[in-house]
Amino acid sequence: MTIKWGIISTANIAQKAVIPGIKESETGEVYAIASRNLGNAKETAEELEIPVAYGSYEELLADPDIDAVYIPLPNHLHKEWSIKAMEAGKHVLCEKPIALNTKEALEMEAASEKAGVILAEAFMYRYHPRYQKIQEIIQSGEIGAIRGIHGAFTFNNAAAKENVRFRKDWGGGSLYDVGVYPISAARMILNEEPQAATVHAFFSEQHDHVDMMASGILEFDHGVALTFDCGMWADFRNRLEILGTEGRIEIPSAFVTNQNQQDHFYLYTSNGTKEVEVPYVNQYALQADVIGHSIQKNKTLPFPVADAILNMKVLDACLTSAEERKRIEITKG
């Protein structure tokens, strides 16, 4: 059974990354795309060789041939259209962050359970095989006990004043857009949830007062912390460092990769420096296949919607800390 995907929106991330990824996957095909402008939908469908184009999201959701939908809409629309898609019986891959806050994410989880469909958050980097290798190195004890993690994801898009990332009421800001990557990575690597967050941010008057740069610390057990920074008005960086008592792992291109970049990472120990070579893979294709296999075989996702809710709780705390300029404890449960 091939999974037939519908794409809700002609967003750039869909055209440049997710649609090519689904096409490269073993389990899926891109069957339809929708835009609120039929002309845009038809133009994109023709350019990307997608069989069906719709002039509304509702028409796409009404198509009985579509099994799953990908939603790359602005953040404030994630909940609405994910729930509508699930109520139409479609499995959903929703772009990160899954919602604007934990309350919305919980409502989306309830809708997925009621409809009996999969709801997944689009963090493609987690499916890259290098992270399995990294976990194996950590578990082997080669770098000793983990003492800290540092992540950075920044880029400069400040001149594009009309970008949806710069609308505060739409869920704009660097924490929502790229801060979620090092946050989710630390949770994945440590396999635990942080206890508190402290974040300092630069809120730009030129960009509807969204956080254009944020630096933070998440407190984990045993004195371990994630220190991170994220930004949309800074030079491009996309890296992660895992520091242990006996060594460290550096991932120069930790979240976004392409065929012109190395996906390799580096292991530093008393035995010297080792470049761990990882063949190029399409992270978006791997993501589509994990979801596709889960649909086909009725398997539980490795990162179910419960993980998205936990990540959202951390993001809520980070945003509150930045706005109120204080440390925020993260409650369990």
TrEMBL record:
SUPFAM superfamilies: Glyceraldehyde-3-phosphate dehydrogenase-like, C-terminal domain (SSF55347), NAD(P)-binding Rossmann-fold domains (SSF51735). InterPro entries: Gfo/Idh/MocA-like_OxRdtase_N, Gfo/Idh/MocA_domain, GFO_IDH_MocA-like_dom, NAD(P)-bd_dom_sf. GO terms for molecular function: nucleotide binding; oxidoreductase activity. The keyword Oxidoreductase applies. Pfam families: GFO_IDH_MocA, GFO_IDH_MocA_C3. Keywords: Oxidoreductase. It comes from the Bacteria. Residues 131-250 form the GFO/IDH/MocA-like oxidoreductase domain. Residues 3-121 form the Gfo/Idh/MocA-like oxidoreductase N-terminal domain. PANTHER family: OXIDOREDUCTASES, TRANS-1,2-DIHYDROBENZENE-1,2-DIOL DEHYDROGENASE. Belongs to the Gfo/Idh/MocA family. This is Gfo/Idh/MocA family oxidoreductase.
